[in-house]
Structures are given as C-alpha cells and as structure tokens.
C-alpha cells in the first residue's frame, strides 16, 4: 500500500489553506468582490487545478438521465427552500440593510447581478469542485483507509471554514458559524458522491445548479424586495 510522504501531506494542507489569506485580502483589505474572485479563483484554485489535472481528468463521465432528473429537482427545491426559509426567518438570519450595504461596499450593484450569477454558478462551482474534490481530496484519499477518511474530512472542512470570512459579513450571529457547519456537511456529501460515482461532473452540477443557484435566487429575491 502506498505511503503518503509527510512533506506532501503538509504541502497539500497548506495549499488548502491558501484561500484564507486570498479571501481576507480581497474582502477586507481591498473590499472588492472582483479582487476576491481573482485572488481565490485565479491565484489559488486555477493553478492548482491545472497542476493536478491528472488527478481528475479521467473522471469526466456524463450524468445519466436519472442524474439530470435529480439535479433538476434539487435545483427547483433548493431555490424554493432558500426563499421560503428567508421569508420565515426575516431579519433573524440576515439583516437586509447590513447585507446589501456590505455587498455594495465591495462593488456589487444590481446591473451585474446576471453576469455575476452566471459566473458564480458556472465558474465558481467548477473551480471549487475541481480544486477541493478533484485535487485536494484526490491527493489524500487513495493511499489507505486512514488517509481516505482524512482526505474527505480535511477537504470538506478546509472548503467550508474559509467561507466564514464572507459569511460573518453577511449573516447575523451565530448563523455564520451554523452555515459553516452546513458547508462541512455539504463538502462531505460532494466527496461521497464523487467517491461513489467516480465522476467529478456530478459534484460540479450539484454544487452549481443546486447550491449556488439557490443562493443566486435568494439574492435576487432580497434585491427585488428591498
């Protein structure tokens, strides 16, 4: 059985922590969602995805009709649940004024809603799944059962926790922390789906068309009612 060199473990873990300084610089120092995307997607994720392409390039299987049906159902239900949850909780989770002010301060405006939504659903979902599952998880998972569990947990936790830097600016406490926990669970589900199907396409589609699309619909609803 292969043994993962300790230096390689450390390198992979450090790589998975790179989004922290990137997002902190973009959101807090430069106060720009565009610089944040450049630093996170352009400098952290994209180079690693290209470098580690051999890890995921053979896992590009097409979804089955059943897969597409489940994804479309998830897309519809996810959007409905997101809006319904917001309607029921009101300002308990999100202060609409603070939420919109925080986005506006960092360069978000209504005219960029559609291109930003497309970018988020397509580019963000693709790069995140290729990086977190395709590279980080694949680097750690095939060596032994111990590393397999470690890879699944580490990739999911590292994927989720950096989001706290963004969530704390948008959500009322303690819902930023609760959402991070939910994202850890989401990451574990995406890693399990990838592990089960051997297809990186399915996690990308679930991430983009179900999770990220629901967030886009929720943002559009908040803008419409503001």
Please tell me about this protein's structure.
The chain has helices at 6-17, 19-29, 33-51, 53-56, 65-89, 96-105, 113-140, 145-161, 164-170, 175-197, 201-224. The protein contains 11 helices and no strands. Helix content is 80%, strand content 0%. The protein is mainly alpha-helical and 226 residues long.
Describe this protein with a few key phrases.
single chain; 226 residues; mainly alpha; 80% helix; globular
Q: What's the quick description here?
A:
With 226 residues, the chain is an all-alpha fold. It has eleven helices and no strands.
Give the helix/strand layout:
Elements: H1 6-17, H2 19-29, H3 33-51, H4 53-56, H5 65-89, H6 96-105, H7 113-140, H8 145-161, H9 164-170, H10 175-197, H11 201-224
Helix pairs in contact: 1-7, 2-3, 3-7, 5-11, 7-8, 7-11, 8-10, 9-10, 10-11
Mean pLDDT: 93
Span of the ends, CA to CA = 58 Å
**Alpha-carbon Rg, integer:** 18 Å
- Level of helix content? over 70%
Order of helices and strands: HHHHHHHHHHH
Low-confidence stretches: none
Given the structure, what is the number of helices? 11
Largest sheet: none
- The beta-strand count equals 0
Q: What is the overall silhouette? A: globular
Estimate the strand proportion: under 5%
- The structural class is mainly alpha
């Amino acid at each position: 059985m292969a043994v993962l060199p300790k230096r390689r473990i450390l390198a992979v873990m450090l790589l998975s922590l790179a989004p922290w300084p990137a997002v902190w610089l973009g959101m807090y120092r430069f106060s720009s969602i565009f610089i944040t995307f450049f630093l996170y997607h352009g400098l952290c994720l994209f180079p690693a995805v290209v470098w580690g392409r051999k890890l995921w390039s053979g896992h590009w299987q097409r979804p089955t009709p059943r897969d597409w049906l489940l994804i479309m159902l998830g897309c519809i239900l996810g959007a409905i649940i997101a809006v319904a949850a917001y309607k029921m909780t009101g300002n308990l989770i999100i202060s609409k004024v603070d939420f919109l002010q925080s986005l506006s301060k960092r360069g978000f405006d209504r005219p960029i809603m559609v291109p930003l939504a497309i970018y988020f659903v397509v580019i963000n979902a693709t790069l995140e799944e290729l990086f977190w599952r395709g590279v980080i998880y694949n680097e750690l998972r095939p060596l032994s059962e111990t590393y397999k569990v470690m890879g699944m947990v580490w990739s999911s936790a590292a994927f989720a926790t950096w989001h706290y830097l963004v969530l704390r600016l948008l959500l009322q406490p303690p819902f930023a922390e609760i959402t991070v926990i939910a994202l850890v669970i989401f990451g574990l589900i995406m890693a399990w789906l990838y592990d089960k199907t051997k297809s990186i396409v399915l996690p990308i589609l679930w991430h983009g068309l179900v999770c990220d699309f629901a967030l886009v619909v929720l943002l559009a609803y908040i803008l419409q009612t503001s």
